[in-house]
């Protein structure tokens, strides 16, 4: 079966509704037809310089949320990025095949470093996409399910893979495809529905999956909507309502067209109240499942040990293939 690799950074106590809709639901849907590997990208999380004990904790809560969202440890390989040293090893090889100029054009880097200023921007933040390319190429992944904000990182991963094949021969790397489901790949901030819902905001426009459900409901009910009163999916003129419809459709499994029909002639308030109820119902159950996993650290450890073992067995093979192709002398 073709392989899939994806991951999230354990940078917060909770994932967001954007992570859930743009990535996690896709991960779950793909487990039946692919060999799926999902990781906690703790090495990437070091780029925000987290407090050490919190990073460890968040790596576990992130795993618990993958599981609560429906990732099945029997069908998917779940692992911590830093448990597989080959990620950092391949990243070095790839960094020697990546242009300084092309890295400098990465929009996420430009945005983040502009905010931080040159003196507090680390080299790790700069080479972040190279490590991400290593994550993907290490598993010969065919498909990488992510949200829209990762598209550019996927493109550079493909460029680097093609470059390796040109320079060192076909089959040195598998060129991966991004799996970005257009309708779900960008969930917007509830207060500013033309901006991405993001982990780095402290505002009221983000839904945190482990937040108090009452707070979640309140945030949905106070979401910014648009001029007019018609409940219709039209992101260009009705970004707020369209975002709510996307969320509603994903959580209910109903089509946007069916929702438009049901809410024809009703007011924005009706939609918000119903969606708030659905969010509370969905994530109360989600949190209960996450709590069960979090209350059994030994089970989480077992899942991670098994995952790391499987991941390493694939990663080691790829790394030695690449080492050999680029001309490193194998140890005697
Ligand atoms: P991260 O941790 O920022 O986000 C995890 C996933 O959630 C998606 N996402 C969204 N999707 C829709 N709407 C939103 N508002 C939204 N916000 C976030 C992201 O696109 C992502 O799929 N660099 C990656 C982590 C990573 C990775 C990898 C991913 C490291 N190595 C290898 C794939 C393959 C990141 O920071 O995701």
Q: Outline of this structure?
A:
One of its GO terms (biological process) is tryptophanyl-tRNA aminoacylation. With 332 residues, this protein is mainly α. 54% of the residues lie in helices and 7% in strands.
Key descriptive features of the protein:
332 residues, aa-tRNA-synth_Ic, 3-stranded parallel sheet, globular, tryptophan-tRNA ligase activity, two-stranded parallel ribbon
Q: Specify the number of helices.
A: 13
Q: State mean pLDDT (0 to 100 scale).
A: 96
Q: Report how far the terminal alpha carbons are from each other.
A: 34 Å
- Helix-strand string: EHEHHEHHHHEHEHHHHH
**Which segments are poorly predicted (pLDDT under 50) over 5 or more consecutive residues?**
none
Report the sheet with the most strands, covering strand number, pairing sense and barrel closure.
3 strands, parallel
Motif ('KMSKS' region): 196-200
Subunit structure: Homodimer.
InterPro entries: aa-tRNA-synth_I_CS, aa-tRNA-synth_Ic, Rossmann-like_a/b/a_fold, Trp-tRNA-ligase, Trp-tRNA-ligase_bac-type, Trp-tRNA_synthetase
Function: Catalyzes the attachment of tryptophan to tRNA(Trp).
